[in-house]
Amino acid sequence: MERICKNYKLCDSLADGTDECPIKYSYLLYEIFSYMRDWILAIEELPLNQPNIILKSTSWRLDENDNIIKSSILALCRSTYFVLISENIGERLKYAVGNMIFEIYFELRCSGNYDRYASILLDALTENNKYRRDNATYRNALADIFTKEEMEYHITHNEVHIQEIKAALT
Length: 170
Known about the structure:
mainly alpha; 7 helices; globular
């Protein structure tokens, strides 16, 4: 993801930088995030006692390579960082990615069965990680995305879950 974000350039004179997906590369980025989202939310289709979805640790710092859901969450959060700090990627695509991640959090939390995964997602998304060289820019971008959608979140999601994200972002 880091390389994709570095290589992302609007070279086509017909590309509109204000579009969510102004070039084919934009669509590729969106698809990558969509697939990671699908891998995470596939947990809802699996039996709760399936061995490879049982968490050994809720720490985002401890990778569990045998747990596809947790590994996907960690990859998603790391990828989000590179998109949000990129100077080349437009605000609409950044917004779509950020909103997608918040929606994953809400979906995991509202299920009632995957609160621990939601906690990992929120912690990995908001806590400082060693690969984040510009944590302030990243956190500001994340907070801006949340703020833009906050009123909609209040209409469509549980107030407690909204406040959890808000607290993690401050």
